[in-house]
Amino acid sequence: MSSADKNLSVFKTDGLPDISNKKFALVVAEWNSEVTEKLFEGAYQTLIGYGAAAENIERGNVPGSFELTLGAHWYAQRSDIDAVIALGVVIQGETKHNDYINHAVAQGITNISIQNNKPVIFGVLTPNNMQQAVDRAGGVHGNKGDEAAMTAIKMVGLKDKIFTR
Ligand code: RBF
């Protein structure tokens, strides 16, 4: 993968699936809400922009990123939801807590994705400081919320390609 491909904000958009009948759940951490709201906005607008219906997008808030796993699990258990996107910001360096939270959420989201057999997207920023977070949530480095939504769309399409024959 070239470095240009790593910024998914300039994603490849050819061959994207029809998501007009797909349902998405966005789970948003309230901790660092000034940034998580921007991630949500980016993810929501990307889903809408690529054809999702507003009534097919649900949102649930959780207090902090640590709770993203359970919030996402609850949505992922619903058979009508096609993909879940977990959005949070854990600032490194402010506290050793970040290591515990980041690892727990990364592992938790991996686990519930496999358990529920559907995409659960890790949209958690782990920057060194607030400025880096702001830069990645609608700032100079794009919006990781957009990328999380695009990842969800692509994984929904891949699942259909593999299982719908
Ligand atoms: N939640 C976040 O989403 N981002 C953080 O940067 C963050 N830092 C925390 C630092 C400390 C010392 C504590 C105790 C919690 C922090 N949380 C953070 C909240 C955490 O995700 C969770 O909501 C709480 O630990 C309750 O389970």
Kindly describe this structure.
This is 6,7-dimethyl-8-ribityllumazine synthase. The protein is an alpha/beta fold and 165 residues long. The protein has a single domain, classed as Lumazine/riboflavin synthase (Rossmann fold, 3-Layer(aba) Sandwich). Helix content is 47%, strand content 18%. The protein has helices at 3-6, 33-49, 68-77, 97-116, 130-135, 144-163, and strands at residues 24-29, 57-62, 83-89, 120-125, 137-139, 142-143. The protein has a 4-stranded parallel sheet, sandwiched between helices. A two-stranded antiparallel ribbon has the order 5-6. The chain is globular, with a radius of gyration of 15 Å. The two termini are 29 Å apart. It binds riboflavin (RBF).
